[in-house]
């Protein structure tokens, strides 16, 4: 892997433990769901400005690129399947396996997606509806 010094810069997130990893998982999911909701909403006034698949794909790419540095998965299955395989192999070799972080990778994306939906629905969508009403009244 190309070493450009980013691993040392971002290594602190892993050392901070469960809270920092939970927050990062939540934030990455929040960003992806927020982008997906905003570019696929047909009630918005800015129709036809850009490509929804491109925006969603670029947001996923940007978030996935941080997964290597931060030891996050952004997908519960991506962390759960290797843990299950590791548990099976360690049971065969009579060694221990650490499951202390599995709840983070399952709960944080759910909470992040839920928060993104709520913020979009009750904060951003209200502003969009208010702006649409003001522009229709002035026309």
TrEMBL record:
SUPFAM superfamilies cross-referenced by the UniProt entry: Aquaporin-like
Topology versus the membrane: Multi-pass membrane protein
Keywords assigned: Membrane, Transmembrane, Transmembrane helix, Transport
Main location: membrane
GO cellular component: plasma membrane
Pfam families the UniProt entry points to: MIP
Segments traversing the membrane: 20-40, 102-123
InterPro entries with a match to the protein in the record: Aquaporin-like, Aquaporin_transptr, MIP
Top-rank lineage group of the source organism: Eukaryota
Gene Ontology MF terms in the entry: water channel activity
Subcellular location: Membrane
Similarity section: Belongs to the MIP/aquaporin (TC 1.A.8) family.
Protein name: Aquaporin AQP-Gra1
Organism (species): Operophtera brumata (Winter moth)
Origin organism lineage: Eukaryota, Metazoa, Ecdysozoa, Arthropoda, Hexapoda
């Amino acid at each position: 892997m190309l070493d450009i010094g980013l691993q040392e810069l971002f290594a602190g997130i892993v050392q901070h433990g469960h809270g920092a990893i939970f927050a990062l998982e939540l934030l990455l999911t929040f960003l992806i769901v927020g982008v997906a909701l905003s570019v696929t909403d047909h009630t918005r006034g800015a129709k036809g400005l850009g490509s929804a698949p491109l925006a969603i794909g670029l947001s996923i790419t940007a978030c996935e690129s941080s997964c290597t540095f931060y030891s996050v998965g952004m997908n519960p299955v991506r962390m759960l399947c290797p843990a299950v395989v590791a548990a099976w192999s360690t049971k065969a070799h009579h060694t221990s396996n650490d499951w202390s972080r599995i709840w983070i990778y399952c709960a944080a994306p759910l909470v992040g997606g839920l928060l993104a939906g709520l913020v979009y629905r009750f904060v951003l969508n209200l502003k969009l509806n208010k702006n649409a009403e003001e522009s229709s009244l002035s026309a």
